[in-house]
Amino acid sequence: MIRRAVAALLTLAAAPAAVTAQEVAPEWTSPEHVAADVAAATRRSDRESVQWGSSRRFRGLWIAGFEASEFIEGAATLADARRRSPTRSAIWFEYDDRTEGADRLSAAAKSYAGRVMQVEFEGRMTVGPRIVSPGAPPLGYGHLGGSAREVLVDRVIHVRDIGALRDEQSR
Q1: Count of the separate structural domains present in the chain
Q2: Which of 37, 47, 98, 123 is deepest in the core (most CB within 10 A)?
Q3: pLDDT tens digits for 111-125?
Q4: In this structure, is residue 119 part of a structural domain?
C-alpha cells in the first residue's frame, strides 16, 4: 500500500494543479486508507515476507532513536561498537506486536534523542535482501531501506538502558 501511495503522490506532483489525489487513486488515498496504511507500516515486521535464518540468542547494543534502530551484535559499550563496526553495522533492529516482552523495548524506541540499550533476546536475522516482487530490485531494511540486514526479536531476555546516545558519545 505504501508503494501505491508514493506512486500516487509522484503522479499527483507531476500532474496539473487542478488534479487531486482522489482523482488519481480515489480507492486508497482517502484519509481512512492512508491512516490505516501508516498505522500498519509503523509496527509491521517482515515475518512472512522475508527469508530468516534459524532462531538463536543474540547479545549486543541497540541504538534506538528518531528514524534509527541499529543493532551491533556482541558490543557491550558504544566504544566497543565502534571498534567492532567503525562504519556502522547495517543491521536494523526490529520487533513487533508478536514479540514477547516488546513493552520493555517500546520506551527506548520512542526516544527522539537516541538511546543506547544493552539487549539480549531470542530472534532471527535475515539471510538475504528483501525481494518485494519478482523482477523488482532487492531492497534494504529499516528506515529508507538503509540497512543490509534485519534482526527480528521473538522474545526479550534482558534490556538495560545505558543512557542517551548524546551522553554515550562524549565518553
Answers
A1: 2
A2: 123
A3: 666 888 999 999 999
A4: yes
